[in-house]
Amino acid sequence: KNEVEQSPQNLTAQEGEFITINCSYSVGISALHWLQQHPGGGIVSLFMLSSGKKKHGRLIATINIQEKHSSLHITASHPRDSAVYICAALTGTASKLTFGTGTRLQVTL
Amino acid sequence: EAGVAQSPRYKIIEKRQSVAFWCNPISGHATLYWYQQILGQGPKLLIQFQNNGVVDDSQLPKDRFSAERLKGVDSTLKIQPAKLEDSAVYLCASSMGRRNTIYFGEGSWLTVV
What is the pLDDT of residues B30-86, one digit of tens each? Predict the structure, then answer.
C-alpha cells in the first residue's frame, strides 16, 4: 500500500462542474503539497498546506490532519484545468516528499 | 522572479552513451532536488541537496548516475552509461528550505534508444 493514495485516478468532467480530488496518507506529515502537471510540461506547485484551508482563484485545498486526508476542489472547471494533479506529503526529519499516484483530469466543453 | 532553469529540454542518445543535465535553481534556494519521472508514473527522488551537501541519495543508482552541486548553486546530473530504462523526464526542483514551497523546472526529456 502506498503511503500516499489519491482518488480518483482518472476524472472526466464537463466545463463548469465542481471537481474534487482526494488524497489520503498513512504517515505523519509536516505539510502537504498539491501539484499540477500539464502534458509535456513541468510541475507547478498549487498549494502547500499544513492545516485548514487555502484558496487561490477557483482552486481550494483543505486538509484534515486528524483524519490524514486532503482534498483539492476546482470550482467552475474549464478545459484548461485538464492536467494531472498530484498530492505530495512532506515527511520525516529530512523532509522527504512522498508523491501520490496522480489524478488525471479531463475537462470537456 | 526567474524560475528553475533546466537544460537541455530534450535529448536522444543511444544506450551505453553518456548524458548530462544541468539545473540552475531559483536564486537563494538552499534545497535542490533531482527527480526521475517515467511516463505514467509519479516523480521519484534521485537526490536531494542542502546547499552543496547531499541529504538523500538513497534511490540514486550510483553505478551509473552521479550528481553534484558545486558551490551550492547550479547542479548537474550525469548518466553513464545510459540504459533503455533510463528514458524518462528528469525534473529539477528547488526550495528555500526543506519545509518551504517547492518549485519545479520544465524538465529534461531523455530518450535512450
Answer: 999 999 999 888 889 999 999 989 989 999 999 999 999 988 899 999 999 999 999
CA distance B44 to chain A (A): 8
Touching A: B residues 55-74, CB under 8 Å:
55-56
Q: List strand residue ranges (DSSP E) for chain B, in order.
A: 5-7, 10-13, 19-24, 31-37, 44-50, 53-56, 65-68, 75-79, 88-95, 103-104, 108-112
Instruction: Determine whether the interchain pair A43/B93 forms a contact, defined as Cβ–Cβ distance below 8 Å.
Output: yes
Q: Is A100 on the interface with B (CB under 8 A)?
A: yes
First to last CA, chain A: 36
- Chain B residues touching A92 at Cβ < 8 A: none
* Cβ–Cβ contact B102 with A under 8 A: yes
User: Are residues A99 and B42, on separate chains, in Cβ contact within 8 Å?
Assistant: yes
Q: Which candidate, B25, B24, B16, B23, places its Cα nearest to that of B79?
A: B16
pLDDT digits (tens, 9 = 90+) for A21-60: 999 998 888 899 999 998 877 899 999 999 999 999 999 9
Helices (H) and strands (E) in chain B, counts: 0, 11
Closest to A94 (Cα-Cα) out of B77, B56, B18, B2? B56
